[in-house]
Amino acid sequence: MVSISIARILVVIGLCSMEGGTVAARAGLARREFDLGPMAGLGGGHSFWPGSTPAAASAGERKLPGFSHGGCPSYYMIGARGTGETLDGSLPYSSIYENVLAAVPGGAKQELQYSTSVEYFATVNEGAQSEVEIISAQLAKCPDTVFVLIGYSKGAMVQTQALINQDMPQDKIAAVVLFGNPYFRAGATQNKCDATSGMGMAAMTGVKMPDQLADRVYDCCAAGDPICQTVGSIMSHFTYSSRANEASQFIIRKLRAKLSS
């Protein structure tokens, strides 16, 4: 883990909405300032900004392993990491891959290549658009494959934006797991963990999970996590690996139901 001296990051969240798959900026900016101490980033995994993953690959490079070899997995898991986390994966959900692949045969997984830099406008939209294009392209080759989407922190924003994109084939989504979601809103049907009040630092944008997907979504906000509750201790944002087994079982149930339907 990279050790970074005490730093104060000004996280700027624009008042924006997703309309027709693109981000439409509204007037004004809402600013949230967090003193994250040695962990200057909103991620929580193997490494932290400035060692972030670069921007998404070109269209010709955005391929899912396995599809190009003639075989079609029955399901594919795509993870979107938090700020500063690398393509090595995300500690909050890395074990979910192992649990699900061991329990449900015929699957595969990949980390979404997108910029995990400390920027929450263009890079989130680009990551979401990249994922939609990947899924659509692979379904053209493997129409029976279904998908599981997993996101942590900034990655939860990417997954939510992807799911509300008008080009996302929602019927092919078997399950979604979100940890520390900045779009979190208390009282939503998909909420699964112990945060029962408040809203995430980006919830004011109006971006929210489509109602028709709610029963396939495990949206986990830990009580006191300021990223998904606005107030609290930033250390709560780094506790989600303790929920990995529960989230794995949620995915396994949803996958088995989807694959048998």
Can you summarize this structure?
With 261 residues, the protein is α/β, with parallel strands linked by helices. It is built from five helices and seven strands, in the order βββαβαβαββαα. The N and C termini lie far apart (43 Å).
Number of strands: 7
Please give the domain count.
Answer: 1
- Compute the CA-based radius of gyration: 17 Å
Q: Describe the largest sheet.
A: 5 strands, parallel
- Distance from N terminus to C terminus (CA atoms, Å) equals 43 Å
CATH architectural group: 3-Layer(aba) Sandwich
Order of helices and strands: EEEHEHEHEEHH
Low confidence ranges: 1-42, 44-52, 56-62, 65-69
Sheet with the most strands: spatial strand order? 4-3-5-6-7
**Within the CATH hierarchy, at the fold level, what is the topology?**
Rossmann fold
Described by the principal axes of the CA atoms, the overall outline is globular
Overall helicity? 10-25%
List the helices and strands and how they pair.
Blueprint: E1 7-19, E2 22-37, E3 75-80, H1 94-103, E4 107-111, H2 122-141, E5 146-152, H3 154-163, E6 173-179, E7 217-220, H4 226-229, H5 244-260
Parallel strand pairs: 3-4, 3-5, 5-6, 6-7
Antiparallel strand pairs: 1-2
